[in-house]
Write a structure and sequence with these properties.
By secondary structure, the protein is an all-alpha fold. It has one domain. Helix content is about 80%, strand content about 0%. It contains two helices and no strands. The longest helix is centred in the middle third of the chain and has 29 residues. The radius of gyration is 17 Å and the shape is elongated.
Length: about 50
């Protein structure tokens, strides 16, 4: 899905190496956001005793 969006947005407008770096950066940002969200949800749950 990310690759499809990035292809539509950038493939015609930037050199290939720049495109690949931008796609990797977007992937990393999204993965980081998901990870941080999961961690914050896990930390907000009460611990069973």
């Amino acid at each position: 899905m990310i690759e499809d969006v990035m292809d539509e947005l950038f493939v015609e407008e930037m050199p290939r190496p720049t495109f690949l770096k931008a796609r990797k950066d977007v992937d990393n940002w999204l993965i980081t956001g998901v990870f941080e969200r999961r961690c914050s949800l896990a930390l907000s749950k009460p611990v069973a005793s």
